[in-house]
Sequence to fold (211 residues):
Amino acid sequence: MESFADLMFTDAVAQVQEARGSRDQYAAPYRRIDIGPDEKLFIETRTSFYLATVNSDGWPYVQHRGGPQGFLKVLDNETLAFADYPGNRQYVSTGNLAEEARVSLFLMDYPRRARLKILGRAEVVAAKDDPFLLEQLSSPGAVTPSHIFKVKLAALDWNCPKYITPRFSEDELDQIIGPQMRAMAARIKELEAALAKQDPAAQDPAAKDNT
Fold:
């Protein structure tokens, strides 16, 4: 794979960096990142990402993709894949890829304020042509996908956490406050049971009215 800067820091970008005072920071050799254990874990624990393609007129198109953890899979150190499930049947991304294979993926971890930028070349293949990979990518309970997106990586780069507003899914909130809430609910039941033993009417308003 290449350095993210080698692909993104064009002459026009370098000119803007120079004009705005950041060129010295980026003129030195830029880091080149491969898929290591941290990157693999980050990628395969996402439940969504954004996929950008470009059409034949040069217009960019950004699509949201979502699924359970592991729906975006690392096949090897240079290849990602995910199943293509039916949506609104516009097929904009698929059509764009028929003419231009270059894509950008943007992966977010809002609670930890982390993001991973990925550049690559994607192809769409029929699921029936790779049944083994199809089995790896299919989500339990979901309809059988007809196609698979495979992305050959060109470059990766971690982005800074600045301006990322933390957001939490239901599962993430449950991990944070769930134990305390469940402990509180259990304690309330325990106190209600103790109170009922002392005064049965406290647990049964109707019984209290009949006394």
Notes: Strands lie at 48-54, 60-66, 73-76, 79-84, 102-109, 114-126, 147-159. The first strand starts at residue 48 and ends at 54. Helices lie at 4-8, 11-19, 23-27, 37-44, 92-97, 131-137, 170-198, 205-209.
